[in-house]
Design goal:
alpha/beta, 2 domains, 12 helices, Aminopeptidase i, Domain 2, 20 strands, Aminopeptidase
């Protein structure tokens, strides 16, 4: 191959024993985060605890920041900001921002979820984010979330993760009777109102009791004993149905890692571990674990919330400069996944410009659809800057678009940050079967993304 030719590098092809060990060791820590942080609430709490262990202190509005400070801001338990103040002049050097998200597609309970039909108790649901509904039937499901009681207390719910826990279920038809369903387009096999969760089957049978002898009544009794809650308390609950699977190595060589919620824990984990592990103290660094990315980054815990600008204002005030000056000199990696090239479905990808599994961190210059619509389309100069620091730090990376032109598309938090006059580009791990209950990534790519983030914040 001529030195003038561009070719992707496969990490596993290049890896020596030392790098291979680093890749595999790093993925063990990531697996723990995956299994213990399946919802934004759990991921936020987990990362906050890790931050506290690494010397981060809670930030309060009005507090003056100083060089060397390490602070966190916990936004409603669903969105975490980590800030490390560097020695450089923040007005001139800006902030190095790593923006990832910790919400993942899932199925939420409705606010009046419980009903009984023909002797089975069910919960009605409304799915969250872009799921292919048929993939969520006939797999073990866990229930995670919170119930806010009128007295102000909040009950944490987590059922289906312990080996002794029961799990939950969405049913599908047997092939013998599915002729009509089989004839439907795949996307219509199961409808939104078909995603009803199987909750119980034993009727209430207590003796000498006036109560209805129904399965629903028995279920309410169990819930009251376990959580002290009544049916009305579902009105102020957020209960998320997620796959009950644990993260697992995939393949004889264990090169790949399967799990629920790689999108976007697979970029969140590298973001905060890169911050904790990188000891250089030049740049001011902000790591964002955002919520609501999967439904448009809206609301108080999403990336479009003014909180992001407010925190930059606080940094500006601390150092007698303006938010505008800081933002003009800041740089952001929108740390999110991209579609990996899947040899089983080559027809949706264009081979030259796809991100390949195990070929390193994937940079996506633009997302969007129909002529880059809805994307921030990062500047060539910013990619030039990243090429330099990645190459200097031995990071293996590649470029990748999501799919062929006009086949589909997607978006990330990148545009919301770029709209604030901050150079922003998407970078992350290529994912196979994205948004499915069990997504696939390469351990090598997870590690290269971590190295890329370390190089960026160094
Ligand atoms: Mn994502
Ligand atoms: Mn997503």
């Amino acid at each position: 191959m001529s030195a003038l030719t561009y070719k992707r590098t496969n990490v596993y092809e290049k890896a020596d024993e030392k790098l291979l060990k680093e890749i595999f060791d790093y993925s063990e820590g990531y697996k723990v985060f995956l299994d213990e942080g399946k919802t934004e609430r759990e991921a936020c709490a987990w990362a906050k605890e890790a931050a506290i262990k690494n010397g981060y202190k809670p930030f309060k509005f009005g507090q003056k920041l100083s060089k060397g400070d390490k602070v966190y801001y916990d936004n409603r338990g669903k969105n975490l900001y980590l800030i490390k103040v560097g020695n450089a002049n923040v007005a001139e050097d800006g902030i190095r921002i790593l923006a990832s998200h910790i919400d993942s597609p899932r199925i939420d309970f409705k606010q009046v979820p419980l009903y009984e039909s023909d002797g089975i108790a069910f919960a009605k649901t409304h799915y969250y984010g872009g799921i292919r509904k048929y993939q969520w039937a006939a797999v073990p499901l866990a229930l995670h979330g919170a119930v806010a009681l009128k007295n102000g207390s909040v009950i944490d719910v987590k059922v289906g993760e312990d080996d002794n826990d029961p799990v939950f279920y969405i049913s599908d038809l047997l092939p013998h009777l599915a002729a009509k369903q089989n004839a439907k387009p795949l996307g219509e096999g199961l409808g939104g109102e078909d995603l009803n969760i199987w909750l119980g089957n034993i009727p209430y049978t207590a003796a000498n009791d006036e109560k209805d002898k129904t399965v629903k009544e028995n279920l309410l009794k169990i819930l009251n004993e376990k959580y002290g809650m009544a049916e009305e308390d579902f009105l102020s609950a957020e209960l998320c149905v997620v796959p009950a699977f644990k993260a697992k190595d995939i393949g004889f060589d264990r090169a790949l890692l399967g799990a629920y919620g790689h999108d976007d824990r697979v970029c969140s984990y590298p973001a905060f571990t890169a911050l904790f592990d990188e000891k250089s103290d030049e740049h001011t660094v902000m790591v964002i674990l955002a919520d609501k990315e999967e439904i448009g980054s809206e609301g108080t815990t999403g990336m479009q919330c003014a909180l992001f600008a407010d925190l930059i204002d606080e940094i500006a005030r601390s150092f007698d400069t303006t938010s505008a000056a800081i933002r003009a000199n800041s740089k952001c990696l929108s740390a999110d996944v991209n579609a990996g090239y899947d040899p089983n479905f080559p027809e949706v990808c264009e081979k030259l410009n796809s991100a390949y599994v195990s070929c390193g961190a994937g940079i996506t210059k633009f997302t969007g659809s129909r002529g880059k619509g809805g994307s921030n389309d990062a500047d060539a100069e910013f990619i030039g800057f990243l090429r330099k620091i990645f190459d200097e730090n031995g990071v293996i990376w590649q470029t990748g678009e999501m799919g062929k032109v006009d086949v589909g598309g997607g978006g990330t938090v990148a545009k919301y940050i770029a709209n604030m006059n901050i150079d922003t580009i998407d970078i992350g791990v290529p994912v196979i079967s994205m948004h499915s209950p069990f997504e696939l990534v390469s351990k090598a790519d997870v590690y290269e993304v971590y190295l890329a983030f370390r190089a960026f914040v160094k």
